Amino acid sequence: MLAKAQQQNQSMLCVGLDPEPTRFPGNFKNDPSKIFDFCAAIVDATADLAMAFKPQIAYFAAHRAEDQLERLMAHMRSVAPQVPVILDAKRGDIGSTAEQYAIEAFERYGADAVTLSPFMGFDSVSPYLKRHGKGAFLLCRTSNPGGDDFQNQRLASVDGQPLLYEHIARLAQGPWNLNGQLGLVVGATYPAEIERVRELAPTLPLLIPGVGAQGGDAAATVRAGLRAGGSIIVNSSRAILYASADQDFAVAARQEALKTRAILQAAATQ
After folding, report:
1. What is residue 10's predicted lDDT score, i.e. its pLDDT?
2. What is the pLDDT of residues 105-136, one digit of tens each?
3. C-alpha dist (Å) from residue 159 to 155, 166, 204, 216
4. Of 16, 54, 187, 248, which residue is least crowded by CB atoms under 10 Å?
5. What is the mean pLDDT of residues 168-174?
C-alpha cells in the first residue's frame, strides 16, 4: 500500500496529525471539540500530496477525543483510500495486553500500521504481525536527545557488540520480519545513523520523523535513507499543521506540504 501511495501521489511525505487546540486558528482555537474539523481540513488539503498520514494518539486521548479520532480514521479512508494511515501509539507490552492494543489499532481505529516499542522483545511485537495486511514500525533510532541513553549503547553479549539500535535493525530485517510487515522508526536529526540503519535493513520501510519543526534536513534524510528496494516515509507535523494561524490554515498547510514534497523529490533525483 505504501508503494501504491508513493507512486500515485509522487510523494515520500507523511503528514503527521498532532492536534493542539491551543494552536488552532480563528474560532477553532482552544476548542477540543474542533479536533476532527481541524484535522479533516488538513487531510482534505493534503490527500493528493501525502504518502501516509500519521495521527498521534496522545493528542486525541489527552482531550477525550478518541471518538473524533475514530471519525477522522473513517474520513481518511473515505477521501484518501490510497493513503495508508500509521497510528503513532508507540505501544510496547506482552501477551494478552498486546493483543488488546492490536485490536485497538487495527479494529477500533482501522489503522494500516502502528508504531511500537520493541524494548520488551519479540513477544511484544508478534500479536500485531498476526494481522494480514497490517504493518508495524519499531522504534530504532529516535530523534530525541535521550535516545542515546539506550539506543546508542553497545551490547557486550551480542556477537560484534552492536549498538542497541543496530541490533534492533538487524532483528527487524531478519528473524522478526516473518511476513514482511515490519518497518523502523529513525529520526531525521541523525542522518548518519539513518544511513547505518539502511545498511543493516536494506529493504525495510523507514518512518522518519523530525523534518520541519524539529530541525531535520529533508534533503539529507533522503540521501541517507532512500535506496532501491527500500522506501522512506518522511514525516512532518507541526510545520504543516500550523503553517498559518488564520482561517487560511488549510491552504497554508497545502502549500507547506507541496514545498516539502518537492524538496524530498528533488533530493531523490540528485
Report:
1. 85
2. 999 999 999 999 999 999 999 999 999 999 99
3. 8, 12, 22, 32
4. 248
5. 98
Nearest CA to 42 out of 51, 33, 53 is that of 53
d(CA 184, CA 205): 7
Cβ count within 10 A of residue 56: 20
Name the residue among 185, 187, 217 with its Cα closest to residue 201.
Answer: 185
Gap between the Cα atoms of 54 and 61, Å rounded = 15
What three-state secondary structure class fits 9? Answer: helix
pTM across the whole model: 0.95
Q: What is residue 129's DSSP assignment?
A: H
Contact partners, residue 84, CB within 8 Å, separation at least 6: 1, 2, 5, 51, 52, 53, 112, 113
90 is catalytic: yes
Would you state the cell numbers that stand for residue 175, as one nine-digit string?
528473524
What's the confidence (pLDDT) of residue 268?
A: 86
The single residue listed with the C-alpha cell 553497545 is: 154
- Active-site pick, 4, 34, 54, 90: 90
28 or 215, greater pLDDT: 28
Burial class, 32, CB count within 10 angstroms (exposed 0-12 / middle 13-18 / buried 19+): middle
Report the alpha-carbon distance of residue 95 to residue 108 in Å, rounded.
19
